[in-house]
Amino acid sequence: MSSYKLKCLSCHTEITDNYNIVCSCGKSGFYRTIYENRQFNPSNENNIWRFHEWLPVKSPPIQKSASNGKESKSEAGKTVVYKSKGFAKELGLQNLFIAFNGYWPEKKANILTGTFKGLEAPPSISRAKENGVKRILLATAGNTGRAFAEETINQNFEVLIVAAKSANSRLWTTKEINENNVKYITLANGNDYTNAIELGKRICNEIGVETEGGARNIARRDGMGTCFLEGVAEIGKIPKHYFQAIGSGTGGIAAWEASIRLIEDGRFGDQPARLHLSQNSRFAPIVHAWKARRNQIINEDFRIPPHEMSSLFAEVLANRTLSYSIDGGVYQALSDTNGEMYAVSEDEAKNAMKFIYQTEEIDIVPPAAVAIASLIQAVEQEKINPNELVLLNITGGGIERLKEDFELIPLKPVIEVKNPQTDLVEIAETCIH
Ligand SMILES: *Cc1c(COP(=O)(O)O)cnc(C)c1O
Ligand SMILES: [Zn+2]
To answer: Which atom of ligand 1 approaches the CA of 143 most closely?
Structure first.
């Protein structure tokens, strides 16, 4: 049983979670979960629900096995954290821990959709169900859609997924998906993730579908935060440094908030992990804003036009709707942790990908390569000492490994539309029953 209140980070009032939270101050800052149990108390389960006391879900979902009808907790995977040998040695680091999110059965890594979005989907869907929400919509660059689609089967829930066609190769599941569970709305060629976000907003506002909430959603942030919690459960203390590639920055905020909870516990250290966050050098708005110590993203920070975004090496990081200036957002997280931002070129990321394959023997997704390249930069620039505790978030990997054991079933669109300005009547007829 998890018990919690929310704190409005604009005015610090405590409020009760009723899903569509609106603080009376009207300032639109993030809400942060304040859990009744201030002690970090993970269980021994090999899934995300081992952190249930620090997830905004009253009771973990129960799943019935199709083969024998037995009930058990939903099979959502979790992060696996281990001390790196090969890669750490190459870098000259003595205390490098890798938080691996994905599929790697030899290490008991069991997130079947291959990225840490698999940590967000289970608590987000549980929280929606517990609050009587019938269906949610999410706009995605691919990885989030995949994670939520897979989880609808585990929890028997309904999602509307909006994505540009360029995300198709990332939209698949390992289980057969029922159209009652997933309605995938695709945007024709020439659209990108930002167009998907725009269309998604219209569908929510004009047809009246609940949004999953993105970085504002406490279940998404605290779900992602379990990656950091897993690190501390393994290491025994708060690491000095945390490396991750970001798009919106939700994962970075989540790691910061996890640090804050662990500091309150008192047994794991009194300093938050220093955030080292990274982006594609061709699209690095947060890098530019932070290097100028600006608490605001300006148009010049975007640098490339929207239609070029799908050509980026790590396309899932190409997000124009950022959680940067908001109360509780990336700017505050970087300020509070004395953070650093890194811009990573395509060549650097590709080399990092090869390097990790050679030293750790696992395939990784492009954003994870960006994070690894940023760690290489940090070592070269002597931003970290060789003996300090470092937690490197490999946000996705093992998809090649997964293909050896599973068939990947592509998500089929129920409807294709031209652009975000499309008439919504047909979408409503196809998707809402
Ligand atoms: C979404 C995603 C990221 C970026 O996450 P943020 O929400 O910006 O923290 C990084 N890596 C992978 C694999 C992702 O799917
Ligand atoms: Zn408020």
So the answer is: 15
